[in-house]
# Entry
Amino acid sequence: MRIYQRTISTWVQFSGIGLHTGMPSFARILPAAPDTGIMFRRTDNGAEIQASVENVVETAYATVLASGGARISTVEHFLAALYGMEIDNAVVEVDGPELPILDGSARQVAEAIDFVGTVESPVRRRFLWVSTNEKLQRNGSMVALAPSENFEVLVTVDFPGTLIGKQWLKFTLTPENFLKEIAPARTFVLREQIDALWKAGLAKGGSLENAIVVEGDKVLNADGLRFQNEFARHKLLDFIGDLALVSRPVRGFFLAVRPGHTVNRCLTEHLSGLAAPRSREPAVIAEEPVAISITA
Ligand SMILES: [Zn+2]
# Structure
């Protein structure tokens, strides 16, 4: 377990298009001082937005942060890459309202961090330890949490009647595991959802270059899948990206059943000690401990 805070050794840059705007987007990750956390900076208007659960304003189709009237969209895969690679401090610059979607995964960002390496500071990381057994439920999703020495997640997905079906994956976070097992997993969409997204003015930049498209029992991407359970792996990637908004390294075990950004946000708010101020209904937190027994 790494004890001291780390940042990236030098800047790395990425260009692509925004998934929802469809517009060109250029981003850079730069080193930052201890206790900066992850700070987004828009180079077009100078706005700075801390990657923190208090700044989350939307989670429906992408995680959107806002502060002081400025917004930044689709932060979850960059955040997952930084958290997964155990980067505590960094500035992420972007020249517009949305980060580039790249290939729909966190692979390029994680590989770039791995390539340039990291610098350790003498300042200790401020771990957040899960100390109780609890359960949160929202919209058919459930996350149970329990103490652990590691950051461990068991994720399940269930898309009946499609190629995805039921999948699961258990993962213990280390940068090496993240780079190999989680970062390459791409986002996915069901073919029948695409028209509704376009009608809502979303996913204008979406294509087979940056998402897996599933139609019934087929994958429409010519190259197929990167992993047989790539869908569960991407849900785990999103889970890590959303948990990153706790802004501290978390140690705990999480059982995430059909997770989505909404339940992940409830969890992040809960862990951050917030009372879900923007939610209409509070998260349901079980009073009795949840027994979790896993045989892998
Ligand atoms: Zn995602």
